[in-house]
# Entry
Amino acid sequence: MEVKLCRINGFCSGVRAALELTGEMLAKHGPPVFILHELVHNESVVKDLLARGARIVDDPEGLPPGSTLIFSAHGVSESVENRARALPLNIVDATCPLVRQVQRRGAALSAEGHTVLLFGKSGHREVEGILGRIRGEKILLTGPADAEAFVPNPGKSYACISQTTMNSADVAKMAAILRAKIPGLVDSASVCHATLARQDAVRELAADCDLVLVAGSAHSSNTLRLREIAAAQGARTELVSSPDAVTPELLRGAKCVGITSGASAPDSLVNGILAAVNRIAAGLR
Ligand code: SF4
# Structure
């Protein structure tokens, strides 16, 4: 059995920066430091933060005065930010700069009078944060089917933007569908560079492998997109959130196993999965 590691693994810059900022706050203020929602979508990273004294909250109300509250890498809406800043808290913003860029672009396009079409997954924190920065009309389109079904109003002008971790092929498809039916559409939809690079890398990996293990969590959007892209290449795919999940049954029949990881999966998880696969492969030889 051949084992291939994806050429891009490990934290993206936004996740790394959010974790470093949280580490600095823990060192400076001591525990507990509060985080509004999960800092990043990965169980082992969150478990580690909790063990170091971080506490995850869903609402800034009721925190002890003077506490440090960190906004997660996914960003927050304007109303959530304003409400938190009105409280006697030390607010630390770990929103990824690339997410903030999309938030600002959405707000600016709206201020220019466009109805903003956001490509994104319903209910995702990043999507809620972006929508909550757009004061004018906005419409969420969750995939190519929504773009196909969308009926524009000829009296309105439209602009499109995208959640940073969408499938880049879907974003391109959705923009093309909308351009064909909306003359003058302002197209600002694109995924972030980290997402794009990872998706390209997994596409290459999956083309060579019959099984692709995707390290990460089931509630991580970028991780699920990697799995989707590997599957579209024809590979069997498995989401693996712990090295313990790698069993001989999981690998059975595979001639080439590829390993990739979401942008919020730690190196320790990828290395653990690689070691487990190599152990099993050695036993099968
Ligand atoms: S996936 Fe992109 S936008 Fe999201 S945290 Fe990472 S670098 Fe930032």
The chain has three domains: 2-10+193-284, 13-96, 98-187. Residues 12-15, 73, 96, 98-99, 164-165, 192, 194-195, 222, 263 surround iron/sulfur cluster (CB under 6 Å). The first strand starts at residue 2 and ends at 5.
